[in-house]
Amino acid sequence: MKIVSACAIAAFVFCATAPVSAQEKTLKIGVLNDQSGLYADMGGLGSIAAAKLAVEDSGLLAKGWKIDVLGADHQNKPDVASNIARRWFDIDGVDVVTDVTNSAVALAIAQLAREKNKVELVSGAATSELTGKACSPNTIHWTHDTWALANGTGKAIVQTGGDTWFFLTADYAFGHALERDTEAVVLKSGGKVLGKVLTPLNTADFSSFLLQAQSSGAKIVGLANSGVDTSNSLKQAAEFGIVESGQKLAGLLVYITDVHAAGLPIAQGLILESAFYWDLNDGTRAFSERFSKAMDGRKPTMVQAGVYSSVIHYLKAVEALGNSKDGAAVVAEMKSMPTEDIAMGEGTIRIDGRKIHDMYLLEVKKPSESKGPWDYYTLRTTIPAAEAFRPLDQGGCSLAVN
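^ Amino acid/amide ABC transporter substrate-binding protein (HAAT family), sequence as received from the core. Prediction below:
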């Protein structure tokens, strides 16, 4: 593979190319995410590597297709993201934007993709509004969402005695949605919310917030944040003796990179939910081994696995339609086909754009239980696809109205 001049843009660019032919079919895939901030580890350059693996595995290069993979850093700013995506769509001929880390960014790009009739494949953002009131015929929400995370992790914790909660919530669309959805589950399950506090995005100091959580007396401190914010929360909670004082931490959106950053001595015993773990089965191990070779030994997060999975399925739909540039038509074709790949297995896509698949409730191992690098989780239970995501009739998506 090589970088070609047609791909040159101000942002980072990565390309997968096949020999040019007279009958060549072309596609451009844009990976839009955080490449320098608090979400860079769970998406970032790893998502670009995952998209390139999907292009390779699609078989289209061998059939004469020319497929470019572009990448850009949106810096967690919706205006920056919108400017990049608009240029991609209007000038650079990008057909699909994927990853789209950060919920506020994903919501903004959903509107733009619909306006331009392009495709948005969301893997990194979590707000359930993407398949609720903000649903679009041009967007598919692939990997996880706040409803699934709340109903998996939150419900399991309340059922095992964690019935009083205090939330540390990232102060933007994702954090608000995750707190809202988890609070609803806690209350429905008979629990109580004793307090909550909003925390600035990418803050380095959680001390005042953790002191409020500690003084609340809540059994569970719910971390409605992600990325570096989560690993910093875990580290500082250990410094304040949160767990030693009898409280427990609930990671409502935890990536394997967060556990890696915090370390098993700090993260051990944490219960979390994920759409992917590298050591689940032969398929996840095979995908992760190839990913690791491209990423200096790192294992993929569920976001990066979701990028691979969504791009594979997108390419199947585009090929079936003969290289259609009609974004809504491609998404409709994707919904009509069952999904299957080595990273995320089998699934389906609903009319509201929600990708449906199993979710996994995991527990972080003790250091003595880990057999080596990245061996971090024990599988507690599998949440079947039919139960993992919000019922179609509860989201308020206009596409689901008969």
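Residues 56 and 280 are 23 Å apart (CA to CA).
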